[in-house]
Design goal:
The chain has 30 helices and four strands. The protein has helices at about 1-15, 25-30, 40-45, 65-75, 95, 105-115, 135-140, 145-170, 185-195, 200-205, 210-235, 240-245, 250-255, 255-280, 290-315, 325-335, 340-345, 360-380, 385-410, 415, 420-425, 430-435, 440-460, 470-490, 500-525, 530-535, 540-545, 545-565, 575-620, 625-630, and strands at about 35, 50-60, 85-90, 120-135. Strands 1-3-2-4 form a four-stranded mixed beta sheet. The longest helix is centred in the C-terminal third of the chain and has 45 residues, at about 575-620. The chain is globular. The chain starts with a helix and ends in a 12-residue tail after the last helix.
Length: about 650
């Protein structure tokens, strides 16, 4: 089976690196350069420097116009070509066109039309993106505003608490359980790197492959987002980027949200299964719902809000370049405007087309679905067998409802809607922000996770020997290669769906991928198949514990590097280059995520858990249940080793 896995993976790599070749290389020479940028920093280092950037729509000034006709035909050839009748220019106006007079925008437009006129074309400046900047503007000191000061004070307070907590833990040897000890850098580092495999609830030890699954999917997701970011940033070599998108790897990247949704199933499985184990010690009821959600909030919120706060305030100050303002500056403005929506995890519900931090929606959807997962588990925990048909019916109903919504609102699958222009337009199309980043789009996946958790727990209660189930052993051995092959086939589905087919694809594509992923996970933990040891590798445990800051910060890390380049996209001429770029982004984000986890996530979460958990026990738990709650370590976030 391992050999088959390697063969499938090798086939994926080979096909991914084999871009489609075209017989129109000679015709490509007739296309105007899609993006052309003068040296931004050299231009604005001059006292009279004036740098303008903007998009232009080209139209012919005389007919027939072979150049314009070829541009139109090339753009319409496939949805994976840029609209080549639009161009983007960044000019040092004072050196390119020093003789022109008027305001900066007028001079810029005249300068570009000087280039277009010999081609019998006219260039009309698009309303966005565009800006003009002078030497005085970039050298003028920008004072700190109140939000920036607030973030600065928060970071300073966190650092001070870590220093004081570390000193207290190192030199104060009293037995008190002071909250300051929770801020010890050394202690939190050990919590990050320690191996908990042989500690705590034995049944949780079987869930170790969750670490590997999460780490691999997060890496693939980061690489896919890097690919999308380069499309948004444009490239001097637009033709190379277009060819990369049309490879198997490019198609896989465009369909990445379906794979990421599989993690919602795994997350729901782990949450539900942990609660079912807790039910052996204390009776579950909806009275526990606030505690369940608060523990989830304390885990997500510190890093989530600090990252969004940084994006809204200091991010724009960390770099500069010709495309920095229309990309990073624009997104930072959205983050500042929508910060309050992230505070209540509603950023995908309020103006969803305006996205702050491209990966933030995944955490928001996970948090929203946690409410449903916890409610269902708390209600159905006492009736495991009766829960299965109820959950199965809910899965089917949710898929049917999404199919009906897709038909009514004419949503189309990402494979249909994702194209070069829609990605460059920052995914501003209804299917994406009304379905794919909404909780109802991920609801079937979460319900599948809850269903599998109840099924797995019920089979354990009945004492079923999984190793004797031949079909399950076969599924465990074949799950990973079949899952990879299925995702590859899904990414190669042709476009051109009818309205009914699109609706069915909307309703059932992601549930099918999620079911395949959770079944692969279920088979591995049930019979410990041949891939069990690989996904249980200790290194994956470390990377999995960094998954929260990795997901939320990878976008900021990549955009900071890519958008500050004088010439975005230089050096990214093949899929291999894109993979290396994704690996570099992943590595740098790991380096950022380690201090965020040790200095922010772990101490803040542990402090809030201690305060909230203690308050709950005093307020709600009976004397009989308090000891049981204290010993229900499977629900303690520090000991959820598979989470």
């Amino acid at each position: 089976m391992i050999h088959l896995l390697y063969i499938l993976f090798s086939a994926f790599v080979v096909s991914a690196l084999s871009a489609q070749e075209y017989s129109e290389n000679e015709g490509l020479q007739r296309l105007p350069q899609h993006l052309k940028l003068d040296d931004y920093h050299r231009c604005l280092s001059r006292r009279d420097g004036l740098y303008c950037y903007g998009g232009f729509e080209l139209t012919p000034t005389q007919y027939p116009n072979p150049t314009y006709d070829y541009m139109k035909g090339y753009s319409a050839k496939t949805v994976f070509h840029y609209n080549r009748t639009s161009i983007y220019r960044g000019y040092c106006v004072n050196t390119r066109c020093p003789s022109y007079t008027g305001d900066a925008s007028t001079r810029f437009k005249q300068c570009v039309n000087d280039w277009a006129r010999p081609l019998s074309l006219r260039a009309d400046l698009l309303p966005s993106p565009q800006y003009c900047r002078t030497h005085a503007e970039v050298t003028r000191p920008i004072p700190l505003d109140t939000p920036q000061r607030v973030i600065l004070y928060v970071v300073a307070a966190i650092l001070i608490l870590n220093i004081v907590g570390t000193i207290y833990d190192r030199y104060c040897h009293d037995s008190s359980s002071s909250l300051l000890r929770l801020w010890s850098v050394g202690a939190n580092w050990q919590r990050l790197v320690n191996d908990y495999t042989d500690q705590g609830e034995p049944r949780l030890n079987d869930l170790q492959p969750a670490h590997g699954l999460k780490a691999v999917v997060v890496f693939l997701g980061i690489t896919a987002h890097c690919n999308g970011a380069h499309i948004m940033l444009l490239s001097h070599s637009a033709e190379k980027l277009e060819q990369n998108v049309m490879t198997t790897f490019g198609m896989f990247s465009l369909n990445g949200t379906s794979v990421a949704t599989g993690l919602l199933s795994v997350s729901a499985f782990l949450t539900s299964y942990n609660l079912l184990l807790v039910s052996e010690k204390i009776p579950l009821s909806l009275k526990l719902l606030p505690l369940c959600l608060l523990k989830r909030i304390t885990r997500f919120t510190p890093v989530f809000l600090l990252t969004v706060g940084y994006a809204a305030t200091w991010w724009v100050r960390t770099g500069d370049g010709p495309v920095w303002s229309p990309m990073v500056g624009h997104e930072a403005d959205i983050c500042r405007k929508k910060f309050w929506t992230h505070l209540i995890y509603a950023n995908n519900l309020v103006h969803p087309e305006q996205m702050c931090v491209g990966t933030s929606w995944t955490l928001t959807v996970d948090m929203q679905l946690s409410i449903i997962v916890c409610c269902l588990t708390l209600v159905l925990a006492r009736r495991h067998r009766g829960a299965l048909p109820v959950l199965a019916a809910m899965i089917l109903v949710s898929c049917v409802i999404n199919t009906m919504l897709g038909y009514i609102y004419q949503w189309v699958p990402l494979r249909e809607a994702f194209n070069i222009e829609s990605i460059y337009g920052k995914l501003n199309f209804p299917s994406f922000y009304n379905f794919y980043i909404q909780w109802w789009g991920g609801l079937p996946a979460s319900l599948i996770g809850v269903f599998m958790a109840h099924l797995y727990y019920e089979q354990q209660v009945q004492g079923i020997n999984f190793a004797k189930q031949k079909w399950l052993v076969f599924a465990a051995n074949m799950s990973v290669p079949v899952l990879i092959a299925g995702i590859l086939l899904l990414s190669l589905v042709e476009q051109g769906f009818s309205r009914t087919t699109s609706a069915l694809f909307i309703g059932f594509e992601r549930p099918v991928v999620s079911a395949a992923m959770i079944l692969a996970f279920y088979a591995q933990i049930a019979v410990k198949g041949s891939s069990y040891n690989f996904f249980s590798w200790r290194g994956f445990q470390f990377l999995s514990r960094l998954s929260l800051p990795l997901v939320i910060n990878s976008w900021l890390v990549h955009m900071t590097i890519a958008a500050s380049r004088p010439h975005p996209g230089i050096g990214l001429y093949s899929v291999l280059d894109m993979l290396v770029d994704g690996l570099a982004t992943y590595t740098l984000t790991v380096m950022v995520s380690i201090p965020l986890t040790v200095l922010v996530e772990l101490p803040v979460r542990r402090s809030l858990d201690t305060l909230i958990f203690s308050s709950y026990i005093k307020s709600y738990a009976s004397d009989k249940d308090r000891a049981n709650i204290d010993t229900a370590s499977v629900h303690d976030s520090d000991k959820k080793k598979a989470m």
